[in-house]
Amino acid sequence: MQTFSPILTITGSDPAGGSGVQADIKTISMLGGYAVSAVTSVTVQNTLGIQHFFDLPADVVQGQIEAIVNDVEPQTVKIGMIRTLETLTVVVNLLTKYHPRHVVYMPVMHSAQGEQLVSPELVKAIHEQLLPLCTLVIPNTQFKTHGEANLYASTVAYYLNEGVPTDEAMRHAQQAVDSQPSICGGLKSRSHELYGQFAHELELHFRTNSDVRYYADRLNVASGYLAQVVRRARGLSPKSIIDGRIMAEAERLLRTTDHTVQEIAYELGFNTQAHFSKFFKKQKGISPTQYRIQ
């Protein structure tokens, strides 16, 4: 079929390409459509999740949408991430003004890790102002993996734009999700391998280095990414893992050797016995001497 007009996607940016504007453009283009876009938020994100947000000012979002709508008049709009009341107002006003034929909304309320991404006030406003303007609302919660909802919603938007009835468009979208899982998880994270490397480096250097940045530099990654990897693998911060390994060795030395507390402190990289004792008591609740007596 011949495409009636471009499809406008209004959503956030996902640098990993699993969701957001990148995934919308990829899916719509793969199906044979033409995607135009307006970005609402820029995320610092990878396969492990979102680290930071930068929400674009509402007037910038408005400018993006108006530039596209005034020029090429898209009749199908697919909406994803909206994180501010000001941006919601812009989107609602423009939908009301231009009356696109189809509005497909996939709410982005939580991250893939379950973190709340929007305020309760915004959720309420979305229900009251945006939902009544939508042709179809696609809950993100009914999909299993990161990116599936994006694939589904973009595919529905494409087929609606082609003049296909809603039920049939939804069937095509479900077939796309079932038959093309690679679109949802195209990138392979090295997090499992990296955690193993971190554990190896820690075993080699915990007696002399307790700084997270040291291990991140050894692995040639950012400290923030190392933190994501370790939390995904162990549910703890890298610093907690490092301190835990130092504590395990301190307890072993106190139990099985006759080294003085000062000697153990120096062996584990502490500048003074007092510093070691403070660290030990913070972790264990008692001093090294009390631990040895017990």
Give a structural overview:
The protein has helices at 20-31, 58-72, 85-98, 120-130, 148-161, 166-179, 191-205, 212-219, 223-234, 238-256, 261-267, 273-284, 288-293, and strands at residues 7-13, 35-46, 49-55, 76-79, 102-105, 136-137. It has a 6-stranded mixed β-sheet. Helix 3 (85-98) runs parallel beside helix 4 (120-130). The model has no long low-confidence stretch (mean pLDDT 88). The protein is built from 13 helices and 6 strands. The chain is elongated. The longest helix has 19 residues, at 238-256. The protein is α/β, with parallel strands linked by helices and 294 residues long. It starts with 6 loop residues before the first strand and ends with a helix.
Distance between the termini: 80 Å
State the total count of DSSP E strands.
6
List the quaternary state of the chains.
single chain
% residues in beta strands: 5-15%
What Rg do the Cα atoms give? 26 Å
Largest sheet: 6 strands, mixed
The computed structural class is: alpha/beta
Using brief descriptors, characterize the structure shown.
single chain; 294 residues; alpha/beta; 6-stranded mixed β-sheet; 13 helices; elongated
Outline the secondary-structure elements:
Elements: E1 7-13, H1 20-31, E2 35-46, E3 49-55, H2 58-72, E4 76-79, H3 85-98, E5 102-105, H4 120-130, E6 136-137, H5 148-161, H6 166-179, H7 191-205, H8 212-219, H9 223-234, H10 238-256, H11 261-267, H12 273-284, H13 288-293
Parallel strand pairs: 1-2, 1-4, 4-5, 5-6
Antiparallel strand pairs: 2-3
Helix pairs in contact: 1-5, 2-3, 3-4, 5-6, 7-8, 7-9, 11-12
